[in-house]
Amino acid sequence: VAEKIAKDEL
Amino acid sequence: MNIFRLAGDMTHLLSIIVLLLKMNATRSCRGVSLKTQELYAVVFVCRYLDLFTNFISLYNTVMKLIFLASTFTIIYWMRFHKVIRVTYDREQDTFRYQFLVLPCLVLAMVLNSEFTVMEVLWTFSIYLEAVAILPQLVLLQRTNNIDNLTGNYVFLLGSYRALYILNWIYRFMTEPNYRQYLVWISGIVQTIVYIDFFYYYIKSWRNNEKLSLPA
Question: The complex's ipTM?
Answer without folding.
Answer: 0.84
